[in-house]
Amino acid sequence: MGILDNVLRGRRDDAELGKGLWRRAHDRFQRGLDRYHQVLEGVDDDVLYAELVVIADGLAGLLPRVRAVCVMCQRLAPSDGFDVPGDYADVHRALSKAGNALATTAEAAAMLSLAIGPVPVGALSVQRRAATVVEQVETAERAVSL
């Protein structure tokens, strides 16, 4: 059943997100989120793990919002290529920054999980990077609602 689910999900994604710019923005965000969760699986410290899980939950809550922005953009400015429609450059920029920030959030979590001994400030560096992800998603939402 897993293969059929993947095919159906791919078709739904093609219909809602297209195969171009907006699909790439969504998929990049999802890959960053997957990477963060992969890092989370390797954390041995229970206290750090608990902090990182709270951040992971917040980031996972952003995925439907990113999808909604990308679906709306695909509806308003369909894309099957990589050219950014001029009126939607701000939305695309914010989505790109959100994807980049999510990747650096996963990287910060990975570096933190490799720390030897107690970490005096906990997951503060990861929280700051996650806040940037939230900011950029909010910026994309505002830009698309114009």
In short:
The protein is mainly α. The chain has six helices and no strands.
What is the approximate shape?
globular
Q: Report low-confidence residues grouped into runs of 5 or more.
A: none
Query: How many strand elements?
Result: 0
Could you spell the SSE succession in H and E letters? HHHHHH
Number of helices: 6
Helix vs. strand class: mainly alpha
Distance between the termini: 41 Å
Approximately how much helix is present in the residues?
Answer: over 70%
Could you describe the largest sheet, including whether it forms a barrel?
Answer: none
Beta percentage is: under 5%
Description:
With 146 residues, the protein is an all-alpha fold. The chain is built from six helices and no strands. α2 packs antiparallel against α3 and α2 packs antiparallel against α4. The protein starts with a helix and ends with a helix.
Keywords for this entry:
single chain; 146 residues; mainly alpha; 77% helix
Produce the secondary structure layout:
Blueprint: H1 2-17, H2 21-41, H3 46-60, H4 63-76, H5 89-113, H6 124-144
